[in-house]
Amino acid sequence: MMLAQKQNFMNQFYKKYHYSIQKYQITDLLFFLFLYPFSTSYGNEQFSFDSRFLPSGYNYSLNSNLPPEGEYLVDIYINKIKKESAIIPFYIKGNKLVPCLSKEKLSSLGININNNDNAECAETSKAGISNISFEFSSLRLFIAVPKNLLSEIDKISSKDIDNGIHALFFNYQVNTRLANNKNRYDYISVSPNINYFSWRLRNRFEFNQNNDKKTWERNYTYLEKSFYDKKLNLIVGESYTSSNVYNNYSFTGISVSTDTDMYTPSEIDYTPEIHGVADSDSQIIVRQGNTIIINESVPAGPFSFPITNLMYTGGQLNVEITDIYGNKKQYTVSNSSLPVMRKAGLMVYNFISGKLTKKNSEDGDFFAQGDINYGTHYNSTLFGGYQFSKNYFNLSTGIGTDLGFSGAWLLNVSRSNFKDKNGYNINLQQNTQLRPFNAGVNFDYIYRKKGYVELSGIGWHGNLYNQLKNSFSLSLSKSLDKYGNFSLDYNKIKYWDNAYDSNSMSIRYFFKFMRAMITTNYSLNKYQSYEKKDKRFSINISLPLTKDYGHISSNYSFSNANTGTATSSVGVNGSFFNDARLNWNIQQNRTTRNNGYTDNTSYIATSYASPYGVFTGSYSGSNKYSSQFYSALGGIVLHSDGVAFTQKAGDTSALVRIDNISDIKIGNTPGVYTGYNGFALIPHLQPFKKNTILINDKGIPDDIALANIKKQVIPSRGAIVKVKFDAKKGNNILFKLTTKDGKTPPLGAIAHEKNGKQINTGIVDDDGMLYMSGLSGAGIINVTWNGKVCSFPFSEKDISSKQLSVVNKQCNRPENSGD
């Protein structure tokens, strides 16, 4: 290759992969050593090695075919499935390099060792681990583990939870709407919040101004704390009830409830159990499609297997029983679920005590509420609850069960007593996923005896006017594969006084034609208060125009009703920048009524997501009116390292810091870049789950080197976790070193340069080439090997080039260093 081509190849290869090397403080030159022989002596057979082969702390020249002991960054595979990359200590045993795996490390990999082996390096062979092999050429560690030693790898312990930083932070939203240049409406929302250890204080205040009328109110104030080991969440103050049995209400008091986010999906989500009878010693194989998720031997008699395998994704299971004579029996297990259903043996509860807010109770009456869900065996969940307040009591009980091919069914019966009124409520639900037909069926039926009063109704003294009698809803969905999707929804509601009875039906068909996405919809609505049925047909067409520069789409919609009103709209919308932080929309609407009146409306809107907030503006107008709207949404975080102006913080978020370096893209949220002081807020994380914080390396300037572009955090609920990425700002340079006697420092010699608190390191290759990154200004680089040392200076002139260039330097030994 030509020299320019070689250097360009090295540059691109280095920029793509050097972050993972720096993560473990292994110099960038290690990476270059693998690449450089190909770029300078292409086609020659010379010694080279993968940069990751060198363990941390390795500081002598290489002169052996046997890999040295030390710590290596390796990819770990459990039963041929990659689990993680980690630094593992290795030592020489016999004539090979073997890993040092502690009991704690094995546990973090999901491997259970049930002995008292607390040594630094556990005796894996005695623990039952069948085979461990290390593939040195690719730095892959393979561990073969019997199934009985495997636990759920995604399970998280309390010591893994990050409660985040102490912080005072504010979320704000400011809206202004101006109609016809005279009528003005202003809205301001401010949420001052405090995080202290695992305690969360949450507040929200709102200000409204409609022309001259002004109101200011507090929405809520509450204190919250999570207890991970107990899997519960505590709230004291003003909040909302949360229940699978009852509707939700606002209250002031105390709530203790199971936090389902603290469980992994396989711990809490319902999955079926496989039951059967083996006539003799038999092999049981359970498949989902072509994937085997259970392969076990059982003795003669009844058997039962809970489906806990992480490979199970729901749907039909095929069970095969093979006895000792080779005879086979096969049957199919279908399953469906409902939100109330839980894993067998798991209990989920919620208990609340306090006062109802006045909008639910005229006098703010005291009330108490509790509900429990318990997953039983035989694919069922039992649930029930109670509510009581002044002159009011409600008791509810129910069951959700999976009946196989006919789907999941729920039956819930509640009875209420309020003063002289009493009644009951019956709810029957069904959900069936007919996966062989790519179809789903759901219905929900409620019957309510007159006299039944919900808790929210006691504020109206149990007024039975306009009380629900029954309701029925049915939903059908069918995938037509390449021909699109079809769905039908039907709803019927009836009241005891017939005042607000209604029927509605909607038929929807979605399909693609070439690049266009087309949705058609027909709806029919009948209301008791209107004699005429409302019939509507609509069609919506969306056509992507480009995806090369931004994302631009055109859209057209048309709607026609039997009332004589027809509406059409045509427009174009899109986004700019790779993360779609700038969005825009232009629409032209036309409405024609049966009296001949026609209204034309124009609409234009744009929004921009910046590191400091999201800003929106829009304008709409016709020949009779105009409207302008402006909005700003953001946050301010005060913490031990200063102040960060950010986008609005979600319930759980991460504050990312890259040492005073701005404009670095973090994650996928539009507009999330590091600000002027190097801070950025990732607004939405999943509590008690593994969240990956990823830096977009495409936008990193050439003069910035990051030790790592990916980190993982497990935040508690409401936490703001701080994630710091170490960065070096400076140029990258390749030195060609010679000593005073014309020789070169040996392969493996260590170079280091100190710039304040930052230490830059590198390793010399077998041609005396030294790659250094993050160099700025002028300084001295020291090179050491086998107790010997030499040094050389560099200047701004040496590192001024933006391209990777080779600079010749003589490395001189101090007089007292010896030979």
Layout of strands and helices, then pairs:
Elements: H1 3-22, H2 28-40, E1 70-78, E2 81-93, E3 96-99, H3 103-108, E4 131-135, E5 140-144, E6 167-179, E7 183-196, E8 199-210, E9 213-227, E10 232-240, E11 250-258, H4 265-268, E12 273-278, E13 282-288, E14 291-298, E15 301-306, E16 317-323, E17 328-333, E18 347-356, E19 366-376, E20 380-389, E21 392-402, E22 408-418, E23 421-434, E24 439-448, E25 468-479, E26 485-495, E27 502-513, E28 516-527, E29 534-546, E30 551-561, E31 566-576, E32 582-592, E33 598-610, E34 613-621, E35 626-639, E36 642-646, E37 653-658, E38 679-682, E39 691-694, E40 704-706, E41 710-713, E42 720-725, E43 727-729, E44 731-739, E45 750-755, E46 758-763, E47 769-775, E48 779-785, E49 788-794, E50 806-811
Parallel strand pairs: 1-5, 37-42, 44-50
Antiparallel strand pairs: 1-2, 2-3, 4-5, 6-7, 6-35, 7-8, 8-9, 9-10, 10-11, 11-18, 12-15, 13-14, 13-16, 16-17, 18-19, 19-20, 20-21, 21-22, 22-23, 23-24, 24-25, 25-26, 26-27, 27-28, 28-29, 29-30, 30-31, 31-32, 32-33, 33-34, 34-35, 35-36, 37-38, 39-41, 40-43, 44-47, 45-46, 45-48, 48-49
